[in-house]
Amino acid sequence: MANKHAILFVDDEENILNSLRRLFRREGYEIFIAKSGAEGLEVLNDHQVSLIISDQRMPEMIGAEFLAKAKEVSPQSMRIMLTGYSDIDAATQAINQGGICRFITKPWDDDELKMVVRDAIQRIDLEAQNLFLTEELQHKNAALEDFNSRLEKAVYQRTRELHYKIKELEGKDRITQHMLSVNSLEETLELVLQIIRDIIEMDKSIIYLLDGGQPKPTAAIGIYSPKTIVPQSALGDIKQTPLHENAFAQVLEQKKPVNITDTKSKSIAPFAVIPILRGDDLLGYIDVSNSDNKDAISSEDVHMVASFALQAAVAISDAQSHKDISSWKVQLEDVLKDIN
User: Fold this and answer.
1) Which of 72, 64, 62 is nearest to 100 (CA)?
2) Is 36 helix (H, G, I), strand (E, B) or coil?
3) How far apart are CA 163 and CA 171, in angstroms?
4) pLDDT (tens digit, 9 = 90+) per residue, 2-13?
5) Region of residue 182 (phi > 0: left; psi between -120 and 50: alpha; otherwise: beta)
6) H or E stretch including 47?
7) Which residues pair with 55 in a beta bridge?
8) Residue 185: beta bridge partners?
């Protein structure tokens, strides 16, 4: 029999123990017997017992005292007392104080005793099943909470990714529309700064274009006043911190964005330097930061500026070509005038 239940009978009369053993021999239980409360406690220390049935009147340790101690040694065991009619009051007290589930009077009826034992074992099984189902439910609830948490994070992450993708597509579309017409270099730089301001909400950005191999500030926003685009003529010389110079050098060498998340300075906000690349040619840099926000710039924002910079590189090259063509046209017209 799987998960066989064990019953401990405790009585100082051997004939009573023999009778109980014979009565339950064919019931499928594992039977333990003890002739005293002390022996009963030893059995409980060595074996797992589902049900304890003890006589009340025993020398040295009465049944109520034994069952109270048995409760401490084996709290999961159910406890039943065998008692005579004259000990009903003591049995009632034992039920109230010793955690005894019920008592049976002597002499007992065999069928009634078997039914009491079956009911007790069934109750034990139900409690065990209830405990198992409760624990299983707790595990499933914990697993469900974990799943919901992971799902919530996944949905948040996906929503965040879609949000950035939509913003990125919006900015790239504006640059594409800009490239459909002929624009000056100043107009192109101004558009890139507007996109960074409007879509990524950076409060400070500077575009440096390489001039003779050196980065020169060409256009900026948020340098002298918030949300105001400052052309090169009004910028003057912007002093670069050693941190910025080092970041420029890294971008020049690696041709990849550099994100300075911790400047270790209260006066310098975290910033990122993104290369403006046309193929393998480095045209310049975009320096972005949030002056009033000391939090690091997110990798998503850096990636987005980098995607704008790739498109901007084409627009900047086109604008520079248009400027060169216009200059050549003026020079050609001057030459033609001299010839005529």
Assistant:
1) 64
2) coil
3) 13
4) 458 999 999 999
5) beta
6) none
7) 82
8) none
Token pair 């685009």 is at which residue?
A: 229
C-beta neighbour count of 318 within 10 angstroms: 16
Helix (H) or strand (E) holding 53: strand 51-55
Half-sphere CA count of 249, side-chain side, radius 13 A: 7
- Rounded Cα–Cα distance for residues 75 and 64 (Å): 15
| Total-model pTM | 0.56
Annotate 153-185 with DSSP letters as a single string. Answer: HHHHHHHHHHHHHHHHHHHHHHHHHHHTS---H
Phi and psi dihedrals of 206, rounded to 5? Answer: -130, 135
Q: Answer whether 217's CB lies under 8 Å from 240's CB.
A: no
Q: Which two tokens stand for residue 145?
A: 């909470």
Query: Amino acid identity of 131?
Result: L
299 CB-near residues (< 8 Å, 6+ apart): 259
HSE (CB half, 13 Å, CA atoms) of 262?
Answer: 1
The whole-angstrom separation of Cα 64 and Cα 57 is 9
* CB-CB contact of 313 with 277 (8 Å): yes
The C-alpha atoms of residue 315 and residue 180 are separated, in whole angstroms, by 10
- What confidence tens digit (pLDDT) does each residue in 51-75 have? 999 998 888 898 888 988 999 999 9
Q: Please tell me the distance from the alpha carbon of residue 246 to that of residue 252, in angstroms, as a whole number.
A: 10
Q: What is the mean pLDDT of the chain?
A: 86
Angle at CA of residue 202, ends 246 and 184, nearest 5°: 85
Looking up tokens 């064919």 gives 26
- Tokens for 103, please give them: 């008592």
Cα–Cα nearest to 188, from 252, 276, 299:
276
pLDDT tens profile 206-258: 999 988 888 889 999 988 777 788 888 888 777 788 999 999 999 999 999 99
Could you please report the per-residue DSSP string of 214-269? EEEEEEEESSSSTT-EEEHHHH--PPPPHHHHHHHHHHHHH-S-EEE---S-SSS-
